[in-house]
């Protein structure tokens, strides 16, 4: 099964991708995480992407298309995957279609997570992740069961993203409406687009997605 989690920054794509990965055995492919790794290791792609990410702008299509095209050929993708943060432009969506044909697979669903803009800013401002396993949390909304200890790996070190600040969030939202939202009609026309209420609790959103995946 191949699915796309679609939505603005902070909509909960990563949170739900981690849940689906555990429940359905699909691999989470987050272009944001891949790019942050490339930046941290100083690769050619990473050096080209860093300034754009820091500014809250989209990284160029050729970089992200290249990263995903290489990644989905790897063996661990053969049981299916969740695209989290890709595609983000119509050109990326068109390139993905070509990749999937080449791999002899097809897209099962594009799940649009609908969240009010005002809530997105609060979600991003309060977000932090486990430094060990990348499990996501929120200062007030999604806390670990034991304060300071990751539910998943027991780690006690946490980190916050450099682009999670008020100024950059505004820019990321503008980029979403200008470049990413126009991808929605592309998938609506293909008949694969479905919506979930991203304003609901994490558990309720997961339940809505489970219904879509079981259909
Ligand atoms: P990326 O890492 O993809 O960031 P993003 O799209 O801005 O999305 P986020 O990771 O911020 O949010 P999310 O929807 O995953 O929310 P989360 O689950 O964490 O991209 C970063 C940058 O990389 C981009 O700006 C761009 O430069 C570049 N890039 C990446 N992909 C690219 C592409 N394809 N093309 C070009 N450039 C690309 O949740 C947020 C918070 O809310 C968390 O704290 C969570 O605990 C909490 N939360 C989640 N769900 C709920 C809920 N239901 N109720 C309450 N709180 C919740």
Could you walk me through the main structural features you see in this protein, from its secondary elements to its overall organization?
This protein has nine helices and eight strands. The chain is an alpha/beta fold. Strand 5 and strand 6 form a beta hairpin. It is globular. The model has no long low-confidence stretch (mean pLDDT 95).
Question: Key terms for this structure?
Answer:
215 residues, alpha/beta, 9 helices, 8 strands, 15% strand, globular, binds BIS(adenosine)-5'-pentaphosphate
SSE map:
Blueprint: E1 2-6, H1 13-24, E2 27-30, H2 31-40, H3 44-55, H4 61-71, E3 81-84, H5 90-103, E4 109-114, H6 117-125, E5 127-130, E6 136-138, E7 158-159, H7 166-180, H8 184-190, E8 193-197, H9 202-214
Parallel strand pairs: 1-3, 1-4, 2-3, 4-8
Antiparallel strand pairs: 5-6, 5-7
Helix pairs in contact: 1-9, 2-3, 4-5, 6-7
Bound molecules: BIS(adenosine)-5'-pentaphosphate.
């Amino acid at each position: 099964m191949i699915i796309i989690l679609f939505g603005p920054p902070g909509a909960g794509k990563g949170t739900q991708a981690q849940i689906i990965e555990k429940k359905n055995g699909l691999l989470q492919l987050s272009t944001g995480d891949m790019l942050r790794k490339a930046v941290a290791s100083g690769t050619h792609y990473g050096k080209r992407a860093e300034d754009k990410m820091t500014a809250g702008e989209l990284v160029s299509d050729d970089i992200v298309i290249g990263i995903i095209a290489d990644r989905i050929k790897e063996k661990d993708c053969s049981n299916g995957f969740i695209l989290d943060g890709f595609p983000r432009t119509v050109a990326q969506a068109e390139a993905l279609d070509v990749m999937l044909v080449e791999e002899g697979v097809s897209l099962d669903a594009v799940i649009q997570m609908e969240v009010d803009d005002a809530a997105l800013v609060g979600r991003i401002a309060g977000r932090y992740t486990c430094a060990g396993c990348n499990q996501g949390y929120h200062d007030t909304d999604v806390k670990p069961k034991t304060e300071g200890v990751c539910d998943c790996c027991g780690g006690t070190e946490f980190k916050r993203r450099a682009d999670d600040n008020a100024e950059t969030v505004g820019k990321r939202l503008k980029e979403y409406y200008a470049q990413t939202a126009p991808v929605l009609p592309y998938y609506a026309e293909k008949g694969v687009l479905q919506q979930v209420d991203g304003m609901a609790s994490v558990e309720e959103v997961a339940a809505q997605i489970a219904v879509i995946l079981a259909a």
